[in-house]
Amino acid sequence: MKKCLLTMAALYGILVGNLPAMAQTNNDEQTAAEDGEVYFRNCAAARAAGVAPIHAGEPGYRRKLDRDGDGVACE
Known about the structure:
Oligomer: single chain
Distance between the termini: 22 Å
Shape: globular
Radius of gyration: 12 Å
Number of strands: 4
Largest sheet: 2 strands, antiparallel
């Protein structure tokens, strides 16, 4: 799943011309948790990766990022 998100981030980077910044796999904003799940430090990181909004059940979703509790984070 992480490879899929990183691939999506790289493709997004190509489209917007920011590939070097998007190709970083181990930065402070987006990391893989110990159990292999995708983790975004905040919504800015999710947006930079091109995955926002994040729906409940999708990689990277967590309740802390869902301010209004409607199941959609980083709206």
